Amino acid sequence: MNRQRKKILMFHPSLAPYRLDQFNSLNELFDLTVVFLFDNIWNNKMDQSKLLDHCRFKVLYLLKGPRRKGKVFFRFGMYRMIRKIQPDIIMGFEYSLTTQLLILWKQLGIITQKIGTTLDDSIDMCHHMQSKLRNLARKRSVKHLDFWVVMSAEVSEFYKNKFNLKEHQLIVSPILQKPERLRENARKLEEIAQQYVREYDLEGKKTLLFVGRLIPEKGLSVFLSTLSSLLLEADNLKFVIVGEGRELSSLQAIMEDQQLRGKVMFAGRLEGEELHAWYACGSGLVLPSLFEPFGAVVNEALIFGMPVLCSQYAGAASLITPERGILFDPKNRNDTLEKTERFLEMIQSVKEVRLAERPSLMGNYQLQFNKEWEKLT
After folding, report:
1. Is 7-176+364-376 a CATH 3.30.565.10 domain?
2. What stretch of H or E contains 208?
3. What is the pTM of this model?
4. How many Å apart are CA 199 and CA 218, to the nearest integer?
């Protein structure tokens, strides 16, 4: 006889593609209902209908309540949702007011379930809190939450050492996607990737790739300025930027000022197969973030066999091994140049796209995932 799965009710900001596999895997262990507080990512609109087709967990929405630029103050109907679903476990997110409200309700005896939160903070963010208010929320949360879901073993150790949390209270579950899902339509990905190679004249070139929002936190302006000398000196080096954002005009200005037209290319914002095809044909991914809770693009690139030059400040730095890439300090010009030159020696020039020749650099994390989440059973 199968053991009845415990019910988890998770309150989460919005449905994002990089969360799908984690939520679906969680639903295999538990009876998972995710209540989204926004109907899309406020600063990066996704095709939600396509994402919902892949959801194997129950999806509900609470959309009424005050908000500001993606920040949820609270949502009307949370308690009604708890009463309706009768979960064994309730999850908030980060140190949000949603999480603080769950803590308050449990203190008052309004709810009795085990409560926890998901925390995307990198180890750098753990040591350098962004505000006094966030620091106060963390101090309150560690006193009252039953468990935490964190992105890396380093963050788990930080909470054990600083706040005396126990091993069973910390679930290490980074935002990882399944290679078989991202790579499943190999023929179509190869066709799109080969189109990119022709359109951007990439064959025989070492092609660095950036994927993400064009905002100051990503450190792209500084990185591009630093990289300009290498781009000018190397005939076989190109840099493709995939994304959109308020720094687009300043990045284009750097390209013009440094005479990098033809060396730096802007591909615009892409998602799904159009995005994944860039991972299939590029030489290496660059993530120069000055501030980055995790960085799902690192996992995506590795899935397509693409090495990564990754900022040491990104949470996804925990995924980088000598076989997968190189870490660097984007705040240090000399370190950036030195590590980029080493990275260029590591990566290969673009050639005819065959995914079979680019196996995933990610291992199978399913057993570890199950082991960590079984702490709640």
Report:
1. no
2. strand 206-211
3. 0.92
4. 26
